[in-house]
Structure formats: C-alpha cells, structure tokens
Amino acid sequence: MATGHITRDDQALDKELAGLLSVESFEPSEEFRAHATLNDPAIYEEADRDWQGWWASQAEKLDWFTPWNQVLDDSNPPFYKWFLGGKLNVSYNCVDRHVLAGNGARVAYHWRGEEGEERDITYADLHRDVQKFANALKDLGIQKGDVIGIYAGMIPETVVSMLACSRIGAVHNVVFGGFSAESVRERMEFSEAKALITVDGAARKGKTAAVKQSVDEVMGDLETLKNIIVIQAKGTECEMKDGRDVWFHEICEAAADECPAEPMDAEDPLFVLYTSGSTAKPKGILHTTGGYLTGASTTHRYVFDVKPESDVYWCCADVGWITGHTYIVYGPLSNGVTSVMYEGAPDYPHRGIWWELVERYKATIFYTAPTAIRACVKWGTEHPDKFDLTSLRLLGTVGEPINPKAWLWYHKVIGGERCPIVDTWWQTETGAIMITPLPGITATKPGSATQAFPGIKVEVVDERDGKPIDEGQGLLVITRPWPSMLRTLYKDDERFVEVYWKKFGKQTYLVGDAARKDKDGYYWVIGRIDDVVNVSGHRLSTAEVESAIVACESVAEAAVIGQSDEDTGQAITAFVTLQGTTAGTDEAEALIRAGVAERIGKFARPKRIIFADDLPKTRSGKIMRRLLRDIAEGRALGDVTTLRDPTVMAALEKQIQSEQAKEE
Ligand code: WT7
C-alpha cells in the first residue's frame, strides 16, 4: 500500500467540482495526443469518404484463412452481410496468432478472485487450455452450429469456454451470473442449447452460492440439453447426474492436446446473447464472426488507444453482458493486450479494492459504469486516496448517461486530471462502441458521448417523419450498416425487422434511445424511449418484471415503471393490486421481491412497491404508465380524460401519501 497520500477534504472537493461545472470542454493533454495511435482529426473524413474501404482496412488487421471477395452485401436490407466469402477463426485471432508471433509469455489476464486469490494466465496458457477444452466439447459430440450455454461467472474458465466454442464453430450463449437459474433455463430453452457450462459454486461478497444445485432444481425437463459441464470453482458440493453431467477438468484431462481452429465463414454465428426488450420475452441478439471481430478489435484499439506491449487494461464489467464479451474478451484478446479480470464487487472486501488493484497491477486504462462511479463518490475520496493511481492514463464509462458531477469526480480523483475520459455509447445490438471520443483527438464535454466512431453514421431524427434534426431532441438512429451489427434475433427474423427496421424503413436502424445534438454536433444520449429500464447499467424490461410479479401468489395485476434514482440511474417501481381483499403488507412486499429474484434475478427486484386497489386504464383496458410515472415522481398529472375510471388516480394519490407518511 502506498503511503504519504493526503486525504482530501470531500467538502472542499465538492466545491471545486461545482466550480468546474462551468468548464464546457476538456482537451486531451499534449502529452497524450503526442503518443496516441490516432491523433489526426482527418481520420473522420477519410473514413467517411470510403466507409466500406475503412472497415475493410481494419478487417485486414485480423488473420484470415481465406480473403473475402465482397466487403458488404446490402442487397437484402436489413439482412446485411459483411466480408462475404472470407474465412477466419475468432479463437485463432485471439490466441494462436499472438503465440505464433512470439508473445505466448505475455499475460492475457491478471485474474483476481474475491478472496484475494491470484492467477496470471498467459496467451500460451490460453492456447493450451482452449485447445484441450475444444477437443473435450467435440468428444461430447458438440458440432459446428450447436448452441452452448455458459453460466459460470467471472473466472478464467468462462473465457476459455467462449474461445473453445468459437474454435470449433459452436455458438455460445452466456448468461450473466446475477440472473436466476430460472432465467438460465429459459434462455437454454429458447436457444435449444445442447450443453450448459456452469460452476459448482460462485463467490459473492464472502458467501458461496450453490450454482449447480440451483441449476439442477429447474433444468430437469429440458429435452434438448444433453450435457451439463461443471467447473470445479469453489469446491461446493453438488450432485452429478449420470450420463448428463461431467466435470470440466476431467473431460479436459481426457482430451487430446491439439485442436486446429476451424475456418469459419465470416457470416457464421459466433454467439447469441439475450437482452431485454419491450415485451416479457428476452431477445436473442445474434452476432457473427468476421464483422463482429472487426468491430470489437477496431474500437478497442482506437477508443482505448491500446499499446499491447505496455498497457494493462481493465474493464470492470461482467462477462455476462455485451460489455464483457466485447471489451473483456474479444477486443482485448484480438489486440493481444494484458487485462485485469476481477471476480468480485467494488466494495468487497473493502471500498477501495478497485484502487488497490489498479495500484497492484499498475493498470493504465480503466473502464467502468457511471453507477459505480456514483457509488465511489458516495463512499468518499479516502478510499482511492490510499492508493497510487498514477499508472492510469485513460478512463472510460459505459452503460448510461453520466452526470457531469460524477464525470468531474472521475476526472479529478481517479484520473488526476491527466487522463482523457471516453464516454462510450453503444448497445448489445451494435456489438461495439458507436458514439465515443477518440482520446487523442476529441475535446470531451462531461455528459456527452461526443461523436460517431469513424465509419459510423448516426443521426437524431424527428419522431414523426424521420427527418434529421440539426439541433435539439429526437430519436437516435444509425443510418449506415456497420460490421458488428446484430444480424437478427435468434430464430426470429420477423421480430428483428419489426423492432429495429420498421419505423423508418429498412436502411435506418432504430436505436430505442432519445438524443440531442448540440451546436458543435456533439451527441447527448438522454435515455430509452421504450419500456426498457436501465438499473445500474443493467437492462431490464418492465414487461418482464411485471410478468414475474404477476406470477407471485395473490397478485392480481402489476404495472412497472422506471424512476430516476440517484444511485442506480433508474430504479424499478411496481404498482401492484392484490387479489380479493388481501391487504398490502410488508410480508406481501417481501414475497414479491423474492418472486422477482427467483424468476429473473436479485438485481431486478423493485425498489419501491405501491399497492393499489386499481390501476389507471384506458377504456380499452390498457394500463396508462405515463400517469403512473407522473404520480410516482410527484408531478402534476397529464391528461386523464381517456381514463375508464378517473377516480382511480385520486385513490392512488392517497395511497402514495399514506406510504410516504409511513416512511417518515
Ligand atoms: C442501452 C444499451 C453496451 C453497453 C452496455 C449496455 C444505454 C449505453 C450509454 C452511454 C448513455 C448509454 C442506452 C442504450 N447506454 N451506453 N455512454 N450514454 N446511454 O448495453 O444493455 O444493450 O443497453 O444502454 O440507453 O440503448 P445494453
């Protein structure tokens, strides 16, 4: 631990940050600019002039077994195809080529367990383990095109599993460790997974969850699932079902050492990742091989300005989300970078653990979510101030708009005012970063993701006619195909077209966010326009939470909204009506929260539950969420004339007042 650090007075800091709020923009330092890979703004124009050529020149930085003969096939929009005829393998690009170039001894991951365990995994280690496990999968009869679930948390074996799938052409379907076993089952069912890779147990803040046991409780009747592969992670006891369950280490031991990488078509599926949409049924976002890897690798290289020989890069997301797929696994590995991979939470075993690890591994690049930064602001500067953070040279954020105060705190306290901050806007669907500063070029403005990445074209358009708006608020759209775009929703082309390409035609991708463009052409993303809520950077569908609540005993009806929340960005508020004369008790609240945890995951539990005798509905029976949002946030009610029963609102108002009185 470093000594001699002064503890800043948080109140004085607060004043100083308030003063900085009037600074409009922050230029990268001369020092940073001088060493940045991209530092000439002409790159934007260059990429724009021949955007297909730009992407082709980026794709060429990967190793291809067979070159492509067409960069983009746009003959059947919105089903775009990239790098037609090209053949490559993702695991080869992420592992083999670095070993072949003599960099096998380079650390791919400094892995750190929650209890302080440490493992350094080199590129040569990955090369050995991925081949072994790929052979083990083949021995189980897994073939190209088969879907394999992965529910194993933040351990190196998760990465090995993803790479092994890509090596043989199996399609992985990773489920975030915070989802419940029920959710895993649902995702395995939708994708007709042949096998599931999981762990005996997982660590979370000093406790161990019996993961395999929970999986067993729900998985029993899934016909398509032939095998469960269990990683012995924590030594948690579990049953192994004969003929179905196998140990990861045992099948690896029995497998042959060498497994040549399968040449895959550029358009062969690489993975499916389920995310929340407007309905209760999650969407299976499908990404393919050549385009996705091009997008992941290119954005990672330039947005984070990575220098593979010297940087230690750390993305604190979870591999179970798209951020983890692209910026813990495929981006950094394809670029041959050394990363930190941390299993635990930011406040365990103490609130300074992230900063302790920055010091320990001399991290140079740090990428996290605004919600985590807000938590750190709350915990105070005493925690980061205990550690030496001078190794850092670049910071990033992702997941939701960042409020300027948190941005400034990050800039000052973590970045020591020397590190550019890249606020990166993108989605599961886009596969890679779309709107972002280039750290050696762009002057940043706190709260704005700034400009489209070179080659990407975005616009803010009028909701009514789709015409571009030059200044002011509208809908964000992407008006040109890009390599890492989703190709479809798994087994549901129709919904794919309906959700993303119907509103403004088959050449305009509807993002689902509102945004504003300022006088300098900078983009400010405001938030979702659909029924998707962003809780601590976790994407949730209100419909999904509603259906989990309605499934609870004695619940008659539920309506869920997102309310702004100072810690988590948005928080879930649920309006619930109970059956018959059942009263809304603390016990009923507890049951509902437990039900949501079981059906979706703990992170989806409503923060606030308001019991009501009835919900505001239109004459045709549709719940008017707009009114619920107004009433929950204490705003004057909008138009109530379309309500079937206008007295409902007065009753609700009373309910909320008595709830507030109870709290006080
Ligand atoms: C939604 C996508 C891929 C990143 C992790 C979330 C919101 C994401 C930003 C940002 C403002 C952001 C948008 C987007 N979002 N990044 N920098 N500024 N909003 O991926 O779960 O697919 O959610 O997250 O609303 O549509 P996701």
Descriptors:
22% strand; 7-stranded mixed sheet; 20 helices; GMP Synthetase, Chain A, domain 3; 664 residues; alpha/beta; Rossmann fold; 30 strands; globular; binds 5'-O-[(S)-butoxy(hydroxy)phosphoryl]adenosine; 5-stranded parallel sheet
Give your account of this protein's structure.
With 664 residues, the protein is an alpha/beta fold. The chain folds into three domains: 10-67 and 279-528, Rossmann fold, CATH 3.40.50.12780; 90-262, Rossmann fold, CATH 3.40.50; 532-663, GMP Synthetase, Chain A, domain 3. It is built from 20 helices and 30 strands. It has a seven-stranded mixed β-sheet with strand order 5-4-17-16-18-19-20, sandwiched between helices. Helix 5 packs parallel to helix 12 (322-334). The radius of gyration is 25 Å and the shape is globular. It starts with 9 loop residues before the first helix and ends with a helix. The model has no long low-confidence stretch (mean pLDDT 94). 5'-O-[(S)-butoxy(hydroxy)phosphoryl]adenosine binds at residues 275, 322-323, 398-401, 423-428, 449, 512-513, 525, 527-528, 534, 539. 5'-O-[(S)-butoxy(hydroxy)phosphoryl]adenosine (WT7) is lined by residues 275, 322-323, 398-401, 423-428, 449, 512-513, 525, 527-528, 534, 539.
Concise description?
With 664 residues, the protein is of the alpha/beta class.
Residue share in β-strands: 15-25%
In DSSP terms (H or I, runs of 4 or more residues), the helix count works out at 20
Task: Kindly name the structural category.
Answer: alpha/beta
**The CATH H-level homologous superfamily of the largest domain:** ANL, N-terminal domain
Kindly state the number of beta strands.
30
Q: Which residues sit in consecutive blocks of at least 5 with pLDDT less than 50?
A: none
Share of residues in helices: 25-40%
Strand adjacency order, main sheet? 5-4-17-16-18-19-20
